[in-house]
Amino acid sequence: MEQQFVVVMNHEEQYSIWPADQTIPAGWSAQNCQGDKETCLQFIRENWTDMTPASLRRAMATN
């Protein structure tokens, strides 16, 4: 059976994948995608269109 992953995101709105059978680390939260590695990476490609950390985007918006 192929390993399953979950897409996770941190407070800076940065994405990663994490093995579905392991506890998600502190500071990360599960997103609405779980499946094989390629499925999760495709979700990230479609949803993480701006790799700039959220705090930097907010700082740039105020200047």
From TrEMBL:
SUPFAM superfamilies: MbtH-like (SSF160582). Residues 1-46 form the MbtH-like domain. InterPro entries: MbtH-like_dom, MbtH-like_sf, MLP_fam. It comes from the Bacteria. It holds the Pfam family MbtH. PANTHER family: ENTEROBACTIN BIOSYNTHESIS PROTEIN YBDZ. This is MbtH family protein. It comes from Chitinimonas lacunae.
